[in-house]
Amino acid sequence: MLSIFRQYTFDDSFEQVFISNKFLKEYQIALTFATDYDQNNIPTNGIFTPNWDTTKVTPETITDLKNKNPEVNIKVYISIGNSGTKFPFCPRNNKTWILNATKSLTNIIKNYEDCDLQVDGIDVLYECIEASPVDFVECIGQLIKNLKENGVIKEASISPSFALNKEYYFLLYKSYSSLIDWVDYQFQNEVVPVFAPNKLTEVYDDLVMEFYPRKKLFAGYSAENEDWATLSPIVFFLGGMNILKKRKGPGISIHYHNYYQQNENNE
């Protein structure tokens, strides 16, 4: 069983992950997060800056990881968005937001490319949106289109959760499905707790039937302790293995709790 594993991280904790080509055909590092807010938490209308630890996530650490694992395809994503209610999506002007976001993310990615840190794509993970579905679709969809058409990225993913899925993310997917390579559904944000592995697979099957193609749909999970009340590690492990083996899902993702702990310490 060869699949894709994605790790959301703000630092170089990916160096501690065991990567084996017996299980993985691809390992994705999603850097959390790029946000369009200044140091005073004021929205900048699309001018994104990195919030991950740029002293630890370096060209050298990525190159070293790739050199140690030559038989596994390793990719780097920049995740734009937020966790919880901090840094919500709230453009002041759609046209300006799109221009600013395209330029600022291009600058971030190109700066890394100059240092041989190859960024393969962006991930869109907003848990809080203070805009209409139409504005969300226009801004994010056009951003992805611009970055792909300009050759800045090769791939794009969206990471919906229950509360925003149908009204926002699925509308975005329907409008730009040809430009969206992966859908990383965040199971830790279910309204009704998932207490059994078969319930996890039922939700996954429902998503395939109603919203997204199976070949693009990841099962996403958060290892943050506070999310265990909704979905425990053992339930996700057993359900996730079922999704990969029997449901033929392409991959799974995990948020490691050190990101949230680090941000809490900085507040």
UniProtKB/TrEMBL annotation:
Superkingdom in the source lineage: Eukaryota
One GO process term, biological-process aspect: carbohydrate metabolic process
Ranges where the GH18 domain occurs: 1-267
UniProt protein name: GH18 domain-containing protein
Organism classification: Eukaryota, Viridiplantae, Streptophyta, Embryophyta, Tracheophyta
